[in-house]
Design goal:
Number of strands: 4
Largest sheet: 4 strands, parallel
Helix content: 40-55%
Strand content: 5-15%
Oligomer: single chain
Structural class: alpha/beta
Distance between the termini: 96 Å
């Protein structure tokens, strides 16, 4: 009887351990991870207010919620209008630009502070951003052990996957011109349907 009770207790306890571990893993995954962003403007210099849009974009700061992961190129000149986001056809011009200029490789190289002349890398940016993501409690705990502090700095490596490229295609729309076209269309439709007959 005692053996059966002991075996039953061990089975129940053994099944609770994975559940507790899973819950702890879920809580760990919920930690705040600050993303990094690289913003790019598709400029159409031939459009109305094209230069003003470019200047305003260049003055815009990186949002507070993101790490600045900008590269040297912030503005790309394209002559054709881009298709909307989420369209089934991926915009080939933007994709070609990103691939031709090896933007993904350059973003990863920036994470590792890669020297373009020597090819040497370091972990300083990763450590810095890893520490930024740590909570105050994590920092207090890590002060007690050199290994904990090193682990916390290395946690920055997890942030590389949170690097995003944001492509902006900003256009000026003349509402007055559009309103005139729509108004003219309604006048034509009104004349065709004969609003005089309704009264």
């Amino acid at each position: 009887m005692t053996i059966t009770l002991l075996a039953c207790t061990m089975m129940c306890g053994g099944s609770l351990l994975p559940a507790a571990a899973q819950k702890k893993a879920e809580q760990t995954d919920m930690k705040y991870r600050r993303s990094s962003i690289y913003s790019l403007l598709i400029n159409h210099s031939d459009q109305t207010f094209g230069e003003e849009i470019r200047n305003a974009f260049m003055e815009m700061p990186v949002p507070d919620k993101y790490n600045d992961h900008e590269l040297s190129v912030k503005v790309v000149e394209l002559s054709s209008k881009l298709k909307g986001a989420g369209s089934s056809d991926e915009n080939e011009q933007v994709t070609q630009f990103l691939e031709k200029n090896q933007i993904a490789s350059r973003l990863v190289a920036k994470w590792f502070n890669r020297d373009i002349f020597t090819g040497q890398c370091d972990m300083e940016l990763i450590k810095e951003r890893g520490l930024y993501n740590a909570t105050k409690f994590d920092e207090i705990l890590s002060e007690r052990s050199v290994r904990s502090q090193a682990l916390m700095m290395d946690a920055g490596e997890d942030l590389i996957g949170n690097t995003f490229v944001l492509v902006n295609d900003i256009r000026y729309i003349d509402k007055e011109k559009t309103a005139k076209v729509v108004g003219g269309l309604f006048r034509v439709l009104g004349a065709l349907t004969g609003y005089d007959d309704l009264g």
